[in-house]
Amino acid sequence: MTRNQKDLSEVFKPISVHRTFQTIIEHIVEAIDEQGVSAGDRLPKERDLAEMLGVSRSTLRQALRVLEGAGVLSIRPGNSGGIFIASEMVPSEVLGQQIAHEAGQITELVTARRLIEPVVYHLTAENASEREFEWIEEAVSLMGKYKHAPQMVLRADSVYHRRIAYATGNQTVRRAINGIYRDLYPLRSALGLTAENAEHMMDVHTRQLDAMRQKDHALLDKCLDETFIDLELEFDVKLSFSMHSKLR
């Protein structure tokens, strides 16, 4: 183990309470400002860094994306790549703007999805033909086929949602929800996905599809609530009140 690696293992210690991606950013910036981590230093691998900080890899990736956008980190792919300090001159104003934009964009998208998606699913339950339901079911099968290829699972998930939107029979609603999905997809892609996540998504989608086929709107609401909770946990978004409950 090199001296730099040994030093960094002492710098990045578990964050003792549940924190958002902003706190991870603060922790890394403090390492630069106070612990002598400098430009050119390689940080631990993503998995190792998440373990050191005691945070989820998805939340860590969100923080790393913001720091990269602010010019603090350089993230290079490949065997010789990794997470590097690009500059120890942290641009506080740029970083603040990046954090605000990231948090604001995600909160807006998740809130909008909570508002609009129930309408989409309930319209599909009432309007979709059996052929359209089979078309939606094919997308779930694609998720199972590629469950060990995270990016392919997310693509199949996007197909699933677009097909449900199409089956509403309402072009205005379809355009609205597809715009939300389009903006949310790259953010979800950056968070990553495990085979376990894929299995859970398939299970939830299968139950949603069954509820739509049966026109069981109460059961559909329950399945959608589970989806929204998963989404909010995935992005570490905490809404001040339940958007869904306000629609009832």
Q: How would you summarize the topology of this molecule?
A:
Layout lengths: L2 H9 L9 H14 L11 H8 L3 H13 L3 E4 L5 E4 L6 H36 L2 H16 L4 H17 L4 H21 L3 H20 L2 H19 L7 H4 L2
Antiparallel strand pairs: 1-2
Helix pairs in contact: 2-4, 4-5, 5-8, 5-9, 5-10, 6-7, 6-9, 7-8, 7-9, 9-10
Summarize the structure in words.
- The protein has helices at residues 3-11, 21-34, 46-53, 57-69, 92-127, 130-145, 150-166, 171-191, 195-214, 217-235, 243-246, and strands at 73-76, 82-85.
- Strands 1-2 form a two-stranded antiparallel sheet.
- It is 71% helix and 3% strand.
- The longest helix has 36 residues, at 92-127.
Secondary structure: number of strands: 2
Shape: elongated
Counting helices, strands and paired strands, the structural category is mainly alpha
Strand order of the largest sheet: 1-2
How many helices? 11
Mean pLDDT: 83
Largest sheet: 2 strands, antiparallel
Helix amount, in percent? over 70%
C-alpha Rg (nearest Å): 21 Å
Helix and strand pattern: HHHHEEHHHHHHH
Cα distance spanning the termini:
58 Å
Report the uncertain regions.
243-248
As a percent range, the share of strand residues is: under 5%
Task: Describe the structure in brief.
The chain has eleven helices and two strands; from the N terminus they run ααααββααααααα.
Search tags:
single chain, 248 residues, mainly alpha, 11 helices, elongated
